[in-house]
Amino acid sequence: MGIRVGIVGLPNVGKSTLFNALTATGAAQVGNFPFCTVDPNVGRVNVPDPRLEALARIAAPRKVVWNHIEFVDIAGLVRGASRGEGLGNRFLGHIREVDAILHLVRCFEGGDVGHVEGSVDPLRDIETVGTELILADLESLERRADAASKRAKAGDREAGADLPVMERALAALREGRPARGVGLVGDEAGRFAMLRLLTAKPVLYVCNVDEVDAARGNGHSRAVAERGAREGARTVAISARIEAELAEIEAADERDVFLKALGLGEPGLDRVIRAAYRLLGLVTFFTVGPKEARAWAVTEGSTAPQAAGEVHTDFERGFIRAETICYDDYVAHNGEQGAKQAGRMRLEGRDYRVGDGDVFLFRFNV
Asked: How many CB atoms within 10 Å of residue 197?
């Protein structure tokens, strides 16, 4: 499944630096001035997963294919973006096209890059961006709710069913709250998703800290983490500058030495990528064979036929069963044959819910 995460924030907080480090390219222009990124850059990155590496070591396939996420580097928002200030309308449209928001927040003082607001205050910056998204949603949804109300009075049942969801979302927005906190029941989730509200998207706060704070964070990043916890959002602290330097080191042993010297166990970007992946409520399953070992993503709660459909639509249409081995059993018994001989392979049917780490062989008939 395609996963797109938009990198947003105020100008000059390090978005393009982070994007370049994530994609290990110079694709995004980096500069100390607002609106450096007008058209969004898009980069695809692998989701780090040591389980796939372990499966590949056992099966020795000719190819290994990772799950991936597309990161979209979206230009900086400013106050008034919802009214078209800066290049706001275009930027808001870019945000509407992504699945989740990575909100990069400046949590370092000093440096060569000035803050667009004149001082460093990450909670204020979060409020600024959040307010612009709320105002954009409010303007859009008020128009649609008015039109839906008129259609409902004329007897349109679908419009009548949409209105309660719209009204609850509007109530939250008018109180200055994002729409993602709206409670939904029954088929309302589908109706809510069709509204495509900016503030309905899940958010990951990434705190850009100084190099000296990369391992432990600082007061600013802790304040953001506390806010994120209250909102139910995830938070990660990294140093975009360190990650940019790390991306330029090709030798794995040199990267390890560099990380160890900084007191880091792994690149911060690995944590960012995994957090973005988890943000969308995804689980991973694997297919392993002599040609290919591959990781796949499905939404938590997906059935075995739905997982089969990620591999090929014919697999879902003609699904018979899924021969299933959990990851731990596959590794413990050194592969498919060993797990099968130990009685650790299960036959799962249409109602089976995919478990994170399942290794599948799909049987189908079209």
From this structure: 25
Q: Which element (helix H / strand E) includes 192?
A: helix 188-194
* Rounded Cα distance, 137 and 172, in Å: 11
- 3-state class (DSSP) for residue 69: strand
Q: What confidence category does residue 163 fall into, taking pLDDT thresholds of 50, 70 and 90? A: very high
Segment 181-198, tens digit of pLDDT: 888 887 888 899 999 999
For 165-182, what is each residue's pLDDT tens digit? 999 999 999 999 999 888
SS3 345: coil
- CA dist., res. 271 & res. 299, Å (int): 20
- Relative orientation angle of helices 15-23 and 268-279, to the nearest 10 degrees: 90
Cβ-contact 315, 286 below 8 angstroms: no
Q: What count of residues does the chain have? A: 366
Give me the sign of the Cα torsion angle 336, 337, 341, 347. Answer: positive
Q: Record the pTM.
A: 0.83
Contact 97, 87 (CB under 8 A): no
